[in-house]
Amino acid sequence: MKRLVLFIMILLIGYVSKPLWEEPVQQLVPSSRDSIRSAVDFLRENPEINFALDALNQQLNSFTESFDNVPTNSKDTNTEIPALTVPENQLFSIHNIELGDSRTDVEQVMGKPKRTSKNEYGVSWEAYHENYHNFMMVAYDENNIVRGLYTNQDLIASTTGIKRGTPKQLVQEHLGTPESIMRKGLINYQINSNGEYDVFLIDSSYVTIFYDKHKNHTVTAIQVIDEQLEQSKNAFYASPSQELKEGFEYQLFDLTNATRVNHNLPILTWDDHVRETARDHSLDMAENQYFSHTNLEGESPFDRMEEDSIRFMTAGENLAFGQFSSIFAHEGLMNSLGHRENILQESYEYLGVGVAFSNESQPYYTEMFYSDSPFK
Description:
Number of helices: 12
Strand order of the largest sheet: 2-3-4-5-11-10-9
Shape: globular
Low-confidence stretches: 2-77
Strand content: 15-25%
Helix content: 25-40%
Oligomer: single chain
């Protein structure tokens, strides 16, 4: 419906503004690497078109606002939230699954996983969802027993009543003082969360509660890791590998789409081509020990995309460094306003994620978003 309305309004605005675009219209047709810049230059020289497009966009948003919340019969937009019950054996459950449950228990509820990818604990995250609705990740041990859980959707149940949207103050009132140190091998690591998450040691598991500072520091996600699994990782950063690199990349992609679903936005399509551009930048930063959107040759993300022959109308880049997993990287990006805007940009269609590791095993994350459609 929104696209139909947009098409009709484009025809109307095109008719009334015909004298403005009739002569130079060919400059806007993307036919070369310089097409984006040509279009930008043309719009700068013709502010009347910018004004007309802005007016069109405002009218469209106003006209279609009532359509955004209309229920449909599509399974992508009408997926039911499951009935959650109070956990029986643990303080927390996700989608009624607790640590200690079996893979059979999980898959009776969720079906087969949509993706399996290596994580920092030396096992895999199994991602379960219905087109990114009811999204959760589960880690199993060698006996297919649940040892790790994560979700950033409304699947959290607790004997304390903590759920997604609970204020941070109430979390701490129920769970007490969070951990300030985590021991790995012979080293104690200080937990420096900058107030964005709390870690609690409860029922022989590490419970990490993530907060959304743009929503009054309320619960936005939860990770529950069995204490033995956590302690099996004897260093702050996991040992780099090709499997772990790909795992972090796909996990960050899935986390992004699960978050977009939370905000009623269309999901993004994975793009292998731009993933290579992102990987190159992550590797360049890791090898040359810098952290910037502009590389050492002075090239912007858009320059690098054009060099790799990626055609785009709009694009954006997110960078993260030092977080020991994609979960922590994603939650940190969501608490950074500019990065959050990229993640929640409605017009984007594609995403590629590239990860590289420094000599100290620190991961560098690059997310590259783009759209190749002139109107969305």
